[in-house]
UniProtKB/TrEMBL annotation:
SUPFAM superfamilies in UniProt: eIF1-like
Domain SUI1: 42-105
Entries under InterPro entries matching the protein: SUI1, SUI1_arc_bac, SUI1_dom_sf
Protein name: Translation initiation factor 1
Species annotation: Desulfomicrobium norvegicum (strain DSM 1741 / NCIMB 8310)
Gene Ontology biological-process entries: regulation of translation
Matching Pfam families: SUI1 (PF01253)
Record-level Gene Ontology MF annotations: translation initiation factor activity
Lineage, uppermost ranks: Bacteria, Pseudomonadati, Thermodesulfobacteriota, Desulfovibrionia, Desulfovibrionales
CDD domains cross-referenced by the UniProt entry: YciH_like (cd11567)
Amino acid sequence: MSRDSFKTVYSTEKPTCRKCGRVDCICGQTRPPARGPVRVGRETKGRKGAGVTVVTGLALPETELKALLTDCKKRLGCGGTLRDGVLEFQGEHRDTLLTFLKDRGITAKKSGS
């Protein structure tokens, strides 16, 4: 069986590239561009009822996402994290985030009710 046919369940090692097999990718594989518009919504799934505001669809490099996350957390006065290219903020901040992203030149839509 080839190496790609196995699925890793848990590992303490750093993730490796599937093409070249190295931690520091040399094959030039990059994150695919985001599909659709930037969405700002609210989720409670898997968080024991605690609501978080999520921003999905941002097609930015990880360094720019981290900088945007820091600026948003300062503006909102709350905690937040970056998970798989999705910004998550503690609490209900959809309206504030929409205006903040609009001021930064990012067109976003409100998702959910």
